[in-house]
Amino acid sequence: MTDLELLLIVQEHDLALDRLRHRHANLPARADLAAAEAALVALAPGLAEVRARRDEVARDAKRLDDEVAAVRERAADADRTLYSGSVTAVKELQALQTDVEHLRARQRELEDRELELMEALEDLEAEVAAAEAASALEADRAASAARALAAAEAEVEGEIETETAARTASTVGIPPSLLDTYERIRAMSNGVGVARLVGDTCQGCRLSIPATEIDAIRRGVAGEARCDNCGAILVP
Ligand SMILES: [Zn+2]
Question: Distance from the CA of 193 to the center of ligand 1, in angstroms?
Answer without folding.
Answer: 9
